[in-house]
Amino acid sequence: MDGVEEHRFADGAIEVVVLPEAGARIHRLRAFGHDLLRTPADPSEHLRDRFFWGSYVMAPWGGRIEPGPVPVGSRVIDLASNFPDGTAIHGQVHTQPWERHGDGSFHVEGGGDGWPWNYEVGLRIEVLDPTVRLDLALVNRSNDPMPAGLAIHPWFRRPVQVAIRGDSFYSPNTATPREAQPVLGHFDQRQLGEMAVDLDATWTDLAEPPVELYWPDTGVRATMRATPPVGYIVAASPGEVDAIAVEPQTHAPQGLRRLLHGEPGALTMIKPGQTLGLTVELTFDRPGS
């Protein structure tokens, strides 16, 4: 990926750098001079290790689903596993080359393979100090209804404290239970603090704002909001990674299984030409403010 193309969006003290060739991935997010994402020195590392750097879009589903073949309506999803736990994880577009359009947005087409519907995903980034706004859109380009999910997967640098104001949670995110349960123990993240090591869960029944972040070494704070109000926040704190993931998502874990079995939190069925949208805003406070 020599000479990889970078697109910079900046206003005041906030800067975002995007790599269209690497899934329109946010390579860098800086606030008040501080890098807040786990960012490799070499941008090509995003393709060698595609899951654990920067921030990337997940579509046409987020998180894990079981590999195929799985009949859905008149079509069959037949995805291969792409993760050591045997699941098909994080959608299809996070390492695909995206095109940059003249209005500053990024787009990619996918599907027609193991995911038998054709679709288009769009990302528009707007930086207006002190807020970064990410507008995501997933469009069904096939001639019959398609299961759909959207999410964004940022890796926030440690040390960082987080509040996830969810009253209920699902865990684990692999063989996840049908119903969420009330938060307890390490899964009660409603107050700002460090996440326990090796948590991997999904929070729901969210208050407003659903997420707050604080980097104690820099004094930078952030709130995360989503429109429409997102129902699920996935978060992970793997001990071997110097970052945590905090992911707004349109559906609960194992969204395809939930769709097939009539469980809550399923992928959304969208009609031909219909769009599933998700807007995520991160608003930052200056150190000491």
Care to describe what's here?
It is a single chain. By secondary structure, the protein is mainly beta. It has one domain (7-285): Beta-galactosidase, Chain A, domain 5 (Distorted Sandwich), CATH 2.70.98. It has two helices and 23 strands. Strands 5, 10, 11, 12, 13, 15, 16, 17, 18, 19, 20, 21 and 23 form a 13-stranded antiparallel beta sheet that branches. It has a four-stranded antiparallel beta sheet with strand order 1-2-3-4, with no helix packed on it. A two-stranded antiparallel sheet has the order 6-9. The longest helix has 7 residues, at 255-261. The mean pLDDT is 95.
Could you give a quick summary of the protein structure above?
The chain has a single domain, classed as Beta-galactosidase, Chain A, domain 5, CATH 2.70.98.10. The protein has helices at 45-48, 255-261; strands spanning 7-11, 14-19, 25-31, 34-35, 55-58, 64-65, 70-72, 75-77, 88-89, 99-100, 106-111, 118-128, 131-140, 146-148, 151-157, 161-170, 181-182, 200-215, 220-227, 232-236, 243-249, 268-270, 275-285.
Order of helices and strands: EEEEHEEEEEEEEEEEEEEEEEHEE
Radius of gyration equals: 18 Å
Distance between the termini: 40 Å
**Low-pLDDT ranges:** none
Query: What percent of residues adopt helix (DSSP H or I)?
Result: under 10%
Number of domains: 1
Strand content: over 45%
Q: How many extended strands?
A: 23
Largest sheet: 13 strands, antiparallel
Describe the secondary-structure layout:
Elements: E1 7-11, E2 14-19, E3 25-31, E4 34-35, H1 45-48, E5 55-58, E6 64-65, E7 70-72, E8 75-77, E9 88-89, E10 99-100, E11 106-111, E12 118-128, E13 131-140, E14 146-148, E15 151-157, E16 161-170, E17 181-182, E18 200-215, E19 220-227, E20 232-236, E21 243-249, H2 255-261, E22 268-270, E23 275-285
Antiparallel strand pairs: 1-2, 2-3, 3-4, 5-15, 6-9, 7-8, 10-11, 11-12, 12-13, 13-23, 14-22, 15-21, 16-17, 16-18, 18-19, 18-20, 19-23, 20-21
